[in-house]
Amino acid sequence: MQIASTISTQNGLTFLAARSNSFGRHTSRLNPLSRQASVLNQTLTTESTRTHLSNLDKLLQKKAPPPLLHKDSCNGSSSENRVKNPLECLNLSKFWPEMKAAEELSPRQLNRLQRLLSMSAERSPRNNLGSRWREYHGSNDWAGLIDPLDENLRREVVRFGEFIQAAYHTFHSNPATSEDDSLFSRQVALPDRSYKVTKSLYATSSLRLPSWVDDFAPDLGWMTQRSSWVGYVAVCDDQREISRMGRRNIIISLRGTATCLEWTENMRDVLVRVPGGENTEQNLPAKVECGFLSLYKTPGSNMPSLAESVMEEVRRLMELYKGETLSITVTGHSLGAALALLAADELSTSAPDMPPIAVFSFGGPRVGNRAFADRISKNGVKVLRIVNSQDVITRVPGMFVSEELDQKLRDNSMVAEVLNVLDNMPWAYSHVGTELRVDSKMSPYLKQNADVACCHDLEAYLHLVDGFMASNCPFRENAKRSLARLVTEQGSNVKKLHKSKANDLSLNLDNQPVYID
Protein backbone atom coordinates (compact mmCIF):
# COMPACT_ATOMS: atom_id res chain seq x y z
CA MET A 1 0.00 0.00 0.00
CA GLN A 2 1.38 3.34 -1.00
CA ILE A 3 0.54 6.15 1.38
CA ALA A 4 1.41 9.73 0.46
CA SER A 5 2.43 12.12 3.20
CA THR A 6 -0.13 14.84 2.80
CA ILE A 7 -1.80 15.37 6.24
CA SER A 8 -0.34 17.11 9.29
CA THR A 9 2.04 15.03 11.38
CA GLN A 10 -0.14 15.45 14.42
CA ASN A 11 -3.28 14.14 12.71
CA GLY A 12 -1.34 11.30 11.12
CA LEU A 13 0.08 10.31 14.49
CA THR A 14 -3.32 10.35 16.11
CA PHE A 15 -4.98 8.27 13.39
CA LEU A 16 -2.20 5.72 13.06
CA ALA A 17 -1.71 5.31 16.79
CA ALA A 18 -5.44 4.73 17.22
CA ARG A 19 -5.31 2.04 14.53
CA SER A 20 -2.28 0.39 16.09
CA ASN A 21 -3.88 0.49 19.52
CA SER A 22 -7.07 -1.23 18.37
CA PHE A 23 -5.10 -4.07 16.77
CA GLY A 24 -2.48 -4.33 19.45
CA ARG A 25 -4.28 -4.57 22.75
CA HIS A 26 -7.72 -5.36 24.11
CA THR A 27 -9.57 -2.30 25.40
CA SER A 28 -13.21 -2.02 26.35
CA ARG A 29 -15.46 -0.01 24.07
CA LEU A 30 -16.78 1.65 27.17
CA ASN A 31 -13.40 2.26 28.78
CA PRO A 32 -12.83 6.01 29.23
CA LEU A 33 -9.10 5.41 29.39
CA SER A 34 -9.15 4.91 25.64
CA ARG A 35 -9.67 8.65 25.32
CA GLN A 36 -6.44 9.36 27.12
CA ALA A 37 -4.53 7.35 24.52
CA SER A 38 -5.27 9.91 21.82
CA VAL A 39 -3.54 12.59 23.91
CA LEU A 40 -0.48 10.44 24.47
CA ASN A 41 -0.34 9.48 20.81
CA GLN A 42 0.19 13.10 19.83
CA THR A 43 3.59 13.07 21.52
CA LEU A 44 4.98 10.21 19.43
CA THR A 45 8.05 10.85 17.30
CA THR A 46 8.37 10.65 13.52
CA GLU A 47 10.21 7.35 13.91
CA SER A 48 7.27 5.97 15.87
CA THR A 49 4.99 7.04 13.04
CA ARG A 50 6.98 4.99 10.56
CA THR A 51 6.65 2.01 12.88
CA HIS A 52 2.88 2.40 13.02
CA LEU A 53 2.74 2.67 9.22
CA SER A 54 4.82 -0.46 8.85
CA ASN A 55 2.65 -2.40 11.31
CA LEU A 56 -0.50 -1.29 9.52
CA ASP A 57 0.91 -2.44 6.19
CA LYS A 58 1.79 -5.84 7.62
CA LEU A 59 -1.80 -6.26 8.81
CA LEU A 60 -3.10 -5.40 5.36
CA GLN A 61 -0.34 -7.50 3.72
CA LYS A 62 1.05 -4.59 1.73
CA LYS A 63 4.48 -3.13 1.14
CA ALA A 64 6.11 -0.89 3.71
CA PRO A 65 5.23 2.79 3.34
CA PRO A 66 7.72 5.37 2.17
CA PRO A 67 9.17 7.77 4.75
CA LEU A 68 7.30 10.97 5.50
CA LEU A 69 8.03 13.72 2.98
CA HIS A 70 8.75 17.29 4.00
CA LYS A 71 8.51 20.03 1.40
CA ASP A 72 10.32 23.26 1.99
CA SER A 73 7.76 26.01 2.58
CA CYS A 74 10.44 28.60 1.79
CA ASN A 75 10.46 27.42 -1.84
CA GLY A 76 6.85 28.39 -2.31
CA SER A 77 5.27 25.05 -1.42
CA SER A 78 3.54 24.56 1.89
CA SER A 79 4.86 22.04 4.41
CA GLU A 80 3.03 18.75 3.83
CA ASN A 81 3.17 16.08 6.49
CA ARG A 82 -0.35 14.87 5.84
CA VAL A 83 -1.06 11.17 5.31
CA LYS A 84 -3.78 10.47 2.78
CA ASN A 85 -7.05 8.92 3.80
CA PRO A 86 -6.25 5.18 3.65
CA LEU A 87 -9.40 4.60 1.60
CA GLU A 88 -7.84 6.61 -1.20
CA CYS A 89 -4.88 4.25 -1.24
CA LEU A 90 -6.66 0.89 -1.03
CA ASN A 91 -7.28 -1.07 -4.19
CA LEU A 92 -10.96 -1.57 -3.45
CA SER A 93 -11.53 -3.67 -6.57
CA LYS A 94 -9.28 -6.33 -5.03
CA PHE A 95 -11.23 -6.36 -1.77
CA TRP A 96 -14.56 -6.02 -3.57
CA PRO A 97 -14.61 -8.18 -6.69
CA GLU A 98 -18.25 -7.31 -7.27
CA MET A 99 -17.47 -3.60 -7.47
CA LYS A 100 -15.24 -1.41 -9.60
CA ALA A 101 -12.37 0.76 -8.45
CA ALA A 102 -12.74 3.30 -5.66
CA GLU A 103 -12.73 6.24 -8.00
CA GLU A 104 -16.01 4.95 -9.49
CA LEU A 105 -17.79 4.89 -6.12
CA SER A 106 -20.26 7.67 -5.61
CA PRO A 107 -19.44 10.23 -2.91
CA ARG A 108 -22.38 8.90 -0.91
CA GLN A 109 -21.07 5.30 -1.04
CA LEU A 110 -17.56 6.40 -0.14
CA ASN A 111 -18.86 8.43 2.80
CA ARG A 112 -20.77 5.44 4.11
CA LEU A 113 -17.72 3.23 3.75
CA GLN A 114 -15.55 5.72 5.60
CA ARG A 115 -17.95 5.74 8.52
CA LEU A 116 -18.23 1.96 8.47
CA LEU A 117 -14.46 1.67 8.80
CA SER A 118 -14.17 4.53 11.29
CA MET A 119 -12.14 3.54 14.32
CA SER A 120 -14.28 5.73 16.56
CA ALA A 121 -17.34 7.90 16.29
CA GLU A 122 -17.03 11.50 15.27
CA ARG A 123 -17.76 13.92 18.06
CA SER A 124 -20.95 15.87 18.12
CA PRO A 125 -20.72 19.37 19.56
CA ARG A 126 -21.65 19.83 23.18
CA ASN A 127 -23.92 22.84 23.01
CA ASN A 128 -24.74 24.86 26.10
CA LEU A 129 -28.15 23.78 27.44
CA GLY A 130 -28.13 26.03 30.49
CA SER A 131 -31.06 28.27 29.54
CA ARG A 132 -33.16 25.44 28.06
CA TRP A 133 -32.30 22.42 30.16
CA ARG A 134 -35.82 22.01 31.51
CA GLU A 135 -37.15 21.87 27.95
CA TYR A 136 -34.68 19.13 27.02
CA HIS A 137 -35.54 17.39 30.28
CA GLY A 138 -39.19 17.23 29.20
CA SER A 139 -40.91 20.16 30.89
CA ASN A 140 -43.05 20.64 27.75
CA ASP A 141 -43.11 16.93 26.85
CA TRP A 142 -40.43 17.64 24.23
CA ALA A 143 -42.90 19.57 22.07
CA GLY A 144 -41.24 20.75 18.84
CA LEU A 145 -38.06 18.75 19.51
CA ILE A 146 -38.95 15.29 18.20
CA ASP A 147 -40.24 15.54 14.63
CA PRO A 148 -37.90 16.77 13.25
CA LEU A 149 -35.44 15.64 15.90
CA ASP A 150 -33.54 18.44 17.59
CA GLU A 151 -29.76 17.97 17.42
CA ASN A 152 -29.24 18.65 21.13
CA LEU A 153 -31.98 16.20 22.08
CA ARG A 154 -30.49 13.58 19.75
CA ARG A 155 -27.17 13.86 21.52
CA GLU A 156 -28.74 13.64 24.97
CA VAL A 157 -30.77 10.56 24.02
CA VAL A 158 -27.72 8.75 22.58
CA ARG A 159 -25.67 9.66 25.63
CA PHE A 160 -28.26 8.24 28.02
CA GLY A 161 -28.32 5.06 25.92
CA GLU A 162 -24.57 4.74 26.37
CA PHE A 163 -25.03 4.90 30.14
CA ILE A 164 -27.22 1.79 29.78
CA GLN A 165 -24.56 0.10 27.65
CA ALA A 166 -22.13 0.66 30.53
CA ALA A 167 -24.56 -1.20 32.80
CA TYR A 168 -24.75 -4.14 30.37
CA HIS A 169 -20.97 -4.26 30.05
CA THR A 170 -20.43 -4.23 33.80
CA PHE A 171 -22.95 -7.01 34.41
CA HIS A 172 -21.71 -9.32 31.65
CA SER A 173 -18.10 -8.88 32.76
CA ASN A 174 -19.09 -10.39 36.13
CA PRO A 175 -22.66 -11.73 36.25
CA ALA A 176 -22.28 -13.58 39.55
CA THR A 177 -23.42 -11.85 42.74
CA SER A 178 -21.70 -12.70 46.03
CA GLU A 179 -22.94 -12.05 49.53
CA ASP A 180 -20.51 -9.16 49.93
CA ASP A 181 -21.41 -7.47 46.65
CA SER A 182 -23.95 -5.12 48.17
CA LEU A 183 -21.27 -3.62 50.43
CA PHE A 184 -19.27 -2.24 47.51
CA SER A 185 -19.93 -0.43 44.25
CA ARG A 186 -18.81 -2.26 41.14
CA GLN A 187 -16.32 -0.59 38.85
CA VAL A 188 -18.34 0.84 35.97
CA ALA A 189 -16.61 2.23 32.87
CA LEU A 190 -18.85 5.25 32.34
CA PRO A 191 -19.08 6.74 28.84
CA ASP A 192 -18.85 10.24 30.30
CA ARG A 193 -16.03 11.03 32.71
CA SER A 194 -17.88 14.02 34.13
CA TYR A 195 -20.04 11.52 36.07
CA LYS A 196 -19.08 9.27 38.96
CA VAL A 197 -20.87 6.14 40.19
CA THR A 198 -22.19 6.46 43.72
CA LYS A 199 -24.29 3.31 44.16
CA SER A 200 -24.64 -0.19 42.72
CA LEU A 201 -28.20 -1.43 42.28
CA TYR A 202 -29.52 -5.00 42.57
CA ALA A 203 -32.84 -6.54 41.55
CA THR A 204 -34.22 -9.62 43.28
CA SER A 205 -36.84 -12.05 42.00
CA SER A 206 -39.50 -13.39 44.33
CA LEU A 207 -39.27 -16.71 42.46
CA ARG A 208 -36.85 -19.54 43.14
CA LEU A 209 -35.85 -22.28 40.72
CA PRO A 210 -35.62 -25.88 41.96
CA SER A 211 -32.31 -26.83 43.57
CA TRP A 212 -31.71 -29.56 40.98
CA VAL A 213 -31.14 -26.85 38.37
CA ASP A 214 -27.89 -25.83 40.09
CA ASP A 215 -26.85 -29.49 40.31
CA PHE A 216 -27.59 -30.02 36.64
CA ALA A 217 -25.61 -26.97 35.45
CA PRO A 218 -23.21 -25.89 38.24
CA ASP A 219 -21.24 -23.62 35.90
CA LEU A 220 -24.37 -21.59 35.24
CA GLY A 221 -25.27 -21.08 38.88
CA TRP A 222 -25.41 -17.31 38.38
CA MET A 223 -28.38 -17.88 36.05
CA THR A 224 -30.46 -19.17 38.95
CA GLN A 225 -29.43 -16.56 41.50
CA ARG A 226 -32.33 -14.52 42.77
CA SER A 227 -30.42 -11.24 43.19
CA SER A 228 -28.40 -9.75 40.33
CA TRP A 229 -26.54 -6.51 39.65
CA VAL A 230 -28.93 -4.49 37.50
CA GLY A 231 -27.50 -0.97 37.27
CA TYR A 232 -26.14 2.01 39.14
CA VAL A 233 -26.68 5.57 40.32
CA ALA A 234 -24.24 8.21 39.07
CA VAL A 235 -24.00 11.96 39.56
CA CYS A 236 -22.37 14.68 37.49
CA ASP A 237 -19.25 15.81 39.35
CA ASP A 238 -17.63 18.17 36.84
CA GLN A 239 -18.26 21.89 37.27
CA ARG A 240 -17.82 22.69 33.59
CA GLU A 241 -20.38 20.07 32.62
CA ILE A 242 -22.75 21.25 35.35
CA SER A 243 -22.47 24.77 33.95
CA ARG A 244 -23.07 23.53 30.40
CA MET A 245 -26.16 21.52 31.41
CA GLY A 246 -27.51 24.23 33.70
CA ARG A 247 -27.85 21.88 36.68
CA ARG A 248 -26.26 18.90 38.44
CA ASN A 249 -27.80 15.73 37.02
CA ILE A 250 -28.36 12.44 38.84
CA ILE A 251 -28.59 9.38 36.56
CA ILE A 252 -30.18 6.04 37.38
CA SER A 253 -29.21 3.52 34.69
CA LEU A 254 -30.79 0.05 34.41
CA ARG A 255 -29.95 -2.83 32.06
CA GLY A 256 -32.42 -5.21 30.40
CA THR A 257 -33.27 -8.87 31.04
CA ALA A 258 -30.23 -11.14 31.47
CA THR A 259 -30.98 -14.03 33.89
CA CYS A 260 -33.42 -16.94 33.83
CA LEU A 261 -35.42 -15.63 36.76
CA GLU A 262 -35.71 -12.19 35.16
CA TRP A 263 -37.10 -13.79 32.01
CA THR A 264 -39.54 -15.75 34.16
CA GLU A 265 -40.68 -12.57 35.92
CA ASN A 266 -41.30 -10.97 32.51
CA MET A 267 -43.89 -13.66 31.82
CA ARG A 268 -45.93 -12.84 34.93
CA ASP A 269 -48.02 -10.30 33.05
CA VAL A 270 -51.15 -10.05 35.19
CA LEU A 271 -51.75 -6.53 36.50
CA VAL A 272 -51.48 -6.03 40.24
CA ARG A 273 -52.21 -2.95 42.28
CA VAL A 274 -49.41 -0.50 43.05
CA PRO A 275 -49.17 0.37 46.74
CA GLY A 276 -50.05 3.99 47.14
CA GLY A 277 -53.40 5.37 46.01
CA GLU A 278 -55.99 5.53 43.29
CA ASN A 279 -56.70 7.61 40.23
CA THR A 280 -59.26 10.10 41.52
CA GLU A 281 -60.70 11.03 38.11
CA GLN A 282 -61.77 7.53 37.07
CA ASN A 283 -61.66 5.98 40.53
CA LEU A 284 -59.55 3.14 39.12
CA PRO A 285 -56.56 1.75 41.03
CA ALA A 286 -53.16 2.13 39.43
CA LYS A 287 -51.82 -1.30 38.45
CA VAL A 288 -48.54 -2.61 37.00
CA GLU A 289 -47.24 -5.95 35.76
CA CYS A 290 -46.74 -8.46 38.55
CA GLY A 291 -43.26 -9.56 37.44
CA PHE A 292 -41.88 -6.04 37.09
CA LEU A 293 -43.15 -5.07 40.53
CA SER A 294 -41.64 -8.23 42.00
CA LEU A 295 -38.17 -7.41 40.69
CA TYR A 296 -38.50 -3.84 41.88
CA LYS A 297 -39.82 -4.43 45.39
CA THR A 298 -38.38 -7.79 46.51
CA PRO A 299 -35.36 -7.58 48.88
CA GLY A 300 -32.54 -10.12 48.73
CA SER A 301 -31.27 -12.23 51.58
CA ASN A 302 -28.29 -9.93 52.05
CA MET A 303 -29.27 -6.74 50.22
CA PRO A 304 -32.13 -4.24 50.06
CA SER A 305 -34.65 -4.18 47.25
CA LEU A 306 -34.07 -2.10 44.13
CA ALA A 307 -36.74 0.31 45.36
CA GLU A 308 -35.05 0.81 48.74
CA SER A 309 -31.62 1.33 47.19
CA VAL A 310 -32.84 3.93 44.71
CA MET A 311 -34.83 5.90 47.29
CA GLU A 312 -32.03 5.86 49.85
CA GLU A 313 -29.33 6.97 47.40
CA VAL A 314 -31.39 9.75 45.80
CA ARG A 315 -32.28 11.18 49.21
CA ARG A 316 -28.60 11.04 50.21
CA LEU A 317 -27.52 12.91 47.07
CA MET A 318 -30.29 15.48 47.51
CA GLU A 319 -29.03 16.18 51.01
CA LEU A 320 -25.40 16.24 49.87
CA TYR A 321 -26.11 18.81 47.14
CA LYS A 322 -28.80 20.70 48.98
CA GLY A 323 -29.24 24.22 47.64
CA GLU A 324 -28.04 23.33 44.12
CA THR A 325 -30.24 22.99 41.05
CA LEU A 326 -30.71 19.24 40.54
CA SER A 327 -32.42 16.96 38.05
CA ILE A 328 -33.01 13.21 38.00
CA THR A 329 -32.73 11.17 34.81
CA VAL A 330 -33.83 7.53 34.88
CA THR A 331 -32.85 5.53 31.82
CA GLY A 332 -33.25 1.87 30.91
CA HIS A 333 -33.59 -0.63 28.08
CA SER A 334 -36.21 -3.38 27.83
CA LEU A 335 -36.78 -4.66 31.39
CA GLY A 336 -34.69 -1.73 32.58
CA ALA A 337 -37.18 0.63 30.90
CA ALA A 338 -40.00 -0.94 32.91
CA LEU A 339 -38.06 -0.70 36.17
CA ALA A 340 -37.17 2.91 35.32
CA LEU A 341 -40.86 3.82 35.22
CA LEU A 342 -41.49 2.17 38.59
CA ALA A 343 -38.53 4.00 40.13
CA ALA A 344 -39.60 7.35 38.68
CA ASP A 345 -43.16 6.85 39.92
CA GLU A 346 -42.03 6.17 43.47
CA LEU A 347 -39.46 8.97 43.47
CA SER A 348 -42.09 11.50 42.40
CA THR A 349 -44.05 10.94 45.62
CA SER A 350 -41.19 10.29 48.04
CA ALA A 351 -40.42 13.94 48.92
CA PRO A 352 -42.14 17.31 48.44
CA ASP A 353 -38.94 18.96 47.17
CA MET A 354 -38.06 16.24 44.64
CA PRO A 355 -36.10 17.60 41.62
CA PRO A 356 -37.59 17.31 38.11
CA ILE A 357 -37.69 13.67 37.01
CA ALA A 358 -37.41 12.46 33.40
CA VAL A 359 -37.38 8.90 32.04
CA PHE A 360 -35.60 8.03 28.78
CA SER A 361 -36.56 4.46 27.88
CA PHE A 362 -35.38 2.31 24.97
CA GLY A 363 -37.44 -0.61 23.68
CA GLY A 364 -39.61 -0.64 26.78
CA PRO A 365 -42.70 -2.86 27.16
CA ARG A 366 -46.00 -1.63 28.55
CA VAL A 367 -45.77 -1.50 32.32
CA GLY A 368 -49.18 -0.67 33.78
CA ASN A 369 -52.77 0.29 33.11
CA ARG A 370 -54.20 3.66 32.11
CA ALA A 371 -54.61 4.69 35.75
CA PHE A 372 -50.86 4.12 36.27
CA ALA A 373 -50.07 6.22 33.19
CA ASP A 374 -52.34 9.01 34.44
CA ARG A 375 -50.75 8.83 37.87
CA ILE A 376 -47.23 9.27 36.46
CA SER A 377 -48.34 12.23 34.37
CA LYS A 378 -50.18 13.80 37.32
CA ASN A 379 -47.07 13.52 39.50
CA GLY A 380 -45.01 15.47 36.95
CA VAL A 381 -42.77 12.64 35.71
CA LYS A 382 -41.77 13.22 32.08
CA VAL A 383 -41.30 10.11 29.95
CA LEU A 384 -39.69 9.88 26.49
CA ARG A 385 -40.08 6.41 25.01
CA ILE A 386 -37.74 5.58 22.14
CA VAL A 387 -39.56 2.94 20.09
CA ASN A 388 -38.51 0.95 17.02
CA SER A 389 -41.57 0.24 14.87
CA GLN A 390 -40.21 -3.26 14.20
CA ASP A 391 -39.61 -4.07 17.89
CA VAL A 392 -42.32 -6.45 19.14
CA ILE A 393 -41.29 -5.96 22.79
CA THR A 394 -42.75 -2.45 22.71
CA ARG A 395 -46.18 -3.93 21.87
CA VAL A 396 -46.47 -6.28 24.85
CA PRO A 397 -48.02 -7.04 27.23
CA GLY A 398 -51.59 -5.85 26.74
CA MET A 399 -54.72 -6.28 24.70
CA PHE A 400 -54.50 -3.07 22.65
CA VAL A 401 -52.28 -3.42 19.58
CA SER A 402 -52.46 0.23 18.51
CA GLU A 403 -52.10 3.12 20.94
CA GLU A 404 -53.40 5.51 18.28
CA LEU A 405 -56.55 3.46 17.73
CA ASP A 406 -57.08 3.22 21.47
CA GLN A 407 -56.97 7.02 21.78
CA LYS A 408 -59.32 7.55 18.87
CA LEU A 409 -61.85 5.21 20.42
CA ARG A 410 -61.63 7.07 23.73
CA ASP A 411 -62.30 10.35 21.97
CA ASN A 412 -65.61 8.89 20.88
CA SER A 413 -68.03 9.34 23.76
CA MET A 414 -70.14 6.43 22.50
CA VAL A 415 -67.43 3.88 23.24
CA ALA A 416 -65.56 5.66 26.03
CA GLU A 417 -67.73 4.09 28.70
CA VAL A 418 -67.12 0.62 27.30
CA LEU A 419 -63.37 1.22 27.25
CA ASN A 420 -63.46 2.39 30.85
CA VAL A 421 -64.87 -1.01 31.72
CA LEU A 422 -62.10 -2.69 29.73
CA ASP A 423 -59.57 -0.73 31.79
CA ASN A 424 -60.44 -3.02 34.70
CA MET A 425 -59.52 -6.14 32.73
CA PRO A 426 -56.43 -8.12 33.88
CA TRP A 427 -54.42 -7.27 30.70
CA ALA A 428 -55.60 -3.71 30.02
CA TYR A 429 -52.15 -2.13 29.60
CA SER A 430 -51.32 1.37 28.41
CA HIS A 431 -48.08 3.09 27.38
CA VAL A 432 -46.81 6.18 29.22
CA GLY A 433 -45.45 9.51 28.03
CA THR A 434 -44.17 10.89 24.72
CA GLU A 435 -42.93 8.69 21.89
CA LEU A 436 -39.89 9.04 19.63
CA ARG A 437 -40.50 6.45 16.89
CA VAL A 438 -37.68 5.15 14.71
CA ASP A 439 -37.71 2.30 12.18
CA SER A 440 -34.95 -0.21 11.45
CA LYS A 441 -36.16 -0.39 7.83
CA MET A 442 -35.04 3.23 7.37
CA SER A 443 -31.39 2.34 7.99
CA PRO A 444 -29.32 1.92 4.78
CA TYR A 445 -27.07 -0.52 6.65
CA LEU A 446 -29.57 -2.97 8.22
CA LYS A 447 -31.42 -5.64 6.27
CA GLN A 448 -35.10 -5.03 5.65
CA ASN A 449 -35.90 -8.36 7.32
CA ALA A 450 -33.71 -7.81 10.40
CA ASP A 451 -34.63 -10.30 13.09
CA VAL A 452 -36.37 -9.66 16.41
CA ALA A 453 -33.11 -9.56 18.36
CA CYS A 454 -31.67 -6.86 16.11
CA CYS A 455 -34.82 -4.73 16.23
CA HIS A 456 -34.68 -4.83 20.03
CA ASP A 457 -30.89 -4.42 20.34
CA LEU A 458 -29.76 -1.29 22.20
CA GLU A 459 -26.90 -0.51 19.80
CA ALA A 460 -29.34 -0.77 16.89
CA TYR A 461 -31.58 1.71 18.73
CA LEU A 462 -28.72 4.20 19.14
CA HIS A 463 -27.78 3.75 15.48
CA LEU A 464 -31.35 4.54 14.44
CA VAL A 465 -31.65 7.56 16.72
CA ASP A 466 -28.36 8.91 15.40
CA GLY A 467 -29.64 8.65 11.84
CA PHE A 468 -33.20 9.85 12.44
CA MET A 469 -34.13 13.28 11.07
CA ALA A 470 -37.92 13.22 10.88
CA SER A 471 -40.73 10.76 10.28
CA ASN A 472 -40.95 11.76 6.61
CA CYS A 473 -37.20 11.97 5.94
CA PRO A 474 -34.58 9.34 5.06
CA PHE A 475 -31.63 8.33 7.23
CA ARG A 476 -29.36 11.35 7.55
CA GLU A 477 -26.11 11.29 5.61
CA ASN A 478 -24.06 13.06 8.27
CA ALA A 479 -24.82 10.57 11.05
CA LYS A 480 -21.98 10.62 13.59
CA ARG A 481 -22.11 7.22 15.22
CA SER A 482 -19.54 4.58 14.27
CA LEU A 483 -20.92 1.41 12.66
CA ALA A 484 -18.15 -0.77 14.08
CA ARG A 485 -20.09 -2.00 17.08
CA LEU A 486 -23.28 -2.53 15.07
CA VAL A 487 -21.35 -4.75 12.63
CA THR A 488 -19.81 -6.66 15.53
CA GLU A 489 -23.01 -7.30 17.47
CA GLN A 490 -25.53 -7.56 14.63
CA GLY A 491 -23.39 -8.81 11.74
CA SER A 492 -26.04 -11.20 10.43
CA ASN A 493 -28.50 -8.32 10.16
CA VAL A 494 -26.13 -5.87 8.49
CA LYS A 495 -26.39 -5.76 4.71
CA LYS A 496 -23.93 -8.14 3.08
CA LEU A 497 -22.05 -5.37 1.29
CA HIS A 498 -20.98 -3.60 4.48
CA LYS A 499 -20.37 -6.76 6.48
CA SER A 500 -18.18 -8.42 3.84
CA LYS A 501 -16.06 -5.32 3.32
CA ALA A 502 -15.37 -5.00 7.03
CA ASN A 503 -14.32 -8.67 7.12
CA ASP A 504 -12.12 -8.28 4.02
CA LEU A 505 -10.25 -5.43 5.66
CA SER A 506 -9.68 -7.56 8.79
CA LEU A 507 -10.74 -4.74 11.08
CA ASN A 508 -10.69 -5.44 14.81
CA LEU A 509 -14.26 -4.36 15.46
CA ASP A 510 -14.43 -5.84 18.95
CA ASN A 511 -12.57 -2.94 20.53
CA GLN A 512 -14.11 0.04 18.86
CA PRO A 513 -15.19 2.97 21.06
CA VAL A 514 -18.60 4.46 20.36
CA TYR A 515 -18.45 7.72 22.29
CA ILE A 516 -20.24 10.77 20.98
CA ASP A 517 -18.89 13.55 23.13
UniProtKB/TrEMBL annotation:
Disordered: region residues: 62-81
Chief location of this protein within or outside the cell: plastid
Any Gene Ontology biological process: lipid catabolic process
Keywords: Chloroplast, Hydrolase, Lipid degradation, Lipid metabolism, Plastid, Transit peptide
Record carries keyword Coiled coil: no
UniProt cross-references to Gene3D superfamilies, sorted A to Z: alpha/beta hydrolase
GO cellular component: chloroplast
The keyword Hydrolase belongs to this UniProt entry's keyword annotation: yes
GO MF annotation list: phospholipase activity
InterPro entries in UniProt: AB_hydrolase_fold, Fungal_lipase-type
Record domain Fungal lipase-type: where: 252-399
Subcellular location(s) of the protein: Plastid, Chloroplast
Family: Belongs to the AB hydrolase superfamily. Lipase family.
Full protein name: Fungal lipase-type domain-containing protein
